[in-house]
Design goal:
Blueprint: H1 2-5, H2 13-18, H3 21-26, H4 37-45, H5 49-70, E1 74-81, E2 84-85, E3 96-97, E4 103-105, E5 108-112, E6 115-120, H6 133-146, E7 154-159, H7 166-174, E8 178-181
Parallel strand pairs: 1-7, 7-8
Antiparallel strand pairs: 1-5, 2-4, 3-4, 5-6
């Protein structure tokens, strides 16, 4: 819910939310059971890679289920990173400086209609187009979209300037999908 809400990207805000009885009541949680920033960091550190893949698979299956219900003629996927600021924390377990000059994490996310449909949790100093992660995510999702649906469904990937990369554009062209990307040339 914290990722979906998006009002704050500071992990220490979990500490403020834990003290907010109104927020706890709104999400129907007892005040004593609210998460602290330390609990969230322990939660992230406890992820085992196969378990992360299971979570990603679940997000993708929910997306494909919604696609099947809506049967859109055009699918617009968003690719972006989200800087999670951890500067205010006393300890910085596993955080690295991000491009926004804060210590934190920088997950790569794929979205459809404001829903996260795939995500990779990464350290803060990972460049937006680190390695071939973006290309692999898009290739995988395009294959999953086209397999159960029409092979000719129009797909467009919308990205920010941090993903302005000719190799990505060529990969998208080979996949027969469109792309929209802002950037300097």
């Amino acid at each position: 819910m914290f990722f979906m809400d998006g009002t704050s990207r500071h992990l220490v805000d979990f500490d403020a939310l834990a003290k907010d009885a109104g927020f706890a009541a709104a999400i129907e949680c007892e005040s004593g059971r609210m998460l602290s920033s330390h609990a969230v960091k322990r939660f992230f550190c406890s992820f085992w890679w196969p378990r992360i893949d299971l979570y990603r698979h679940l997000l993708q299956r929910l997306f494909l289920w919604r696609l099947k219900l809506q049967e859109p003629d055009l699918i617009v996927l968003g690719m972006d990173t989200m800087v999670m600021d951890n500067d205010e924390a006393r300890g910085g377990h596993g955080v690295k400086p991000t491009y926004k000059r804060v210590k934190g994490f920088q997950p790569l996310q794929m979205t459809w209609q404001n829903d996260i449909i795939d995500a990779v949790f990464r350290r803060g100093d990972a460049h937006s187009n680190n390695g071939k992660r973006v290309e692999r995510m898009v290739r995988h999702m395009v294959a999953r979209i086209r397999k159960p649906n029409r092979a000719d469904v129009a797909i467009i990937v919308r990205m920010g300037s941090e993903l302005f990369d000719q190799k990505l554009f060529e990969a998208f062209e080979n996949l027969l999908i469109g792309d929209i990307c802002g950037g300097k040339q």
